[in-house]
Amino acid sequence: DNFADLKAKRTASFNIANDETKHWLLRLGEQPLSDDIIDKVDDIFRKRLRTLLTVDDMVGDIVSILEAKNLMDNTYVVFASDNGYHLGQFSMPLDKREPYEFDIRVPLMIRGPGIKKGVTLSYPTVNVDLLPTFLDWAGIAIPEYIDGISLKDIL
């Protein structure tokens, strides 16, 4: 029953009819969405949040074990995602195939030695920057053929 009253975010692009200026994929399907479909979108939104409760428990368990073993001073915990997820934006009930702002802005959270708590950086980064960062933290030389840059000094 968690999040029973929450609804998918009603952004400016939520449930709008798309015209010929939008990608053909956005023009498929019912526009605007019916109330029944919007109810399903909201249900999917709540279910996705509920799934994250398990992830939250798992990360808490891992951090507790690391703390109990006195390993947190030498451990980085990284949380990232792949790309955004549409829930009603541009009248798409659910999808993740378009290159809009909410698709490219994904979470990247890092905790570890030298990382200041509660700080938000606006430095642009992408997933290919993770490997060089991990290698740099481990003291391993970053091969020239590796794409991306280390975020170690930025963080």
From TrEMBL:
One of its GO terms (molecular function) is glycosaminoglycan binding. Gene3D superfamilies: Alkaline Phosphatase, subunit A. Belongs to the sulfatase family. It comes from Hirondellea gigas. Residues 24-140 form the Sulfatase N-terminal domain. The lineage of its organism: Eukaryota, Metazoa, Ecdysozoa, Arthropoda, Crustacea. InterPro entries: Alkaline_phosphatase_core_sf (IPR017850), Sulfatase_N (IPR000917). Its cofactor is Ca(2+). This is N-acetylglucosamine-6-sulfatase-like.
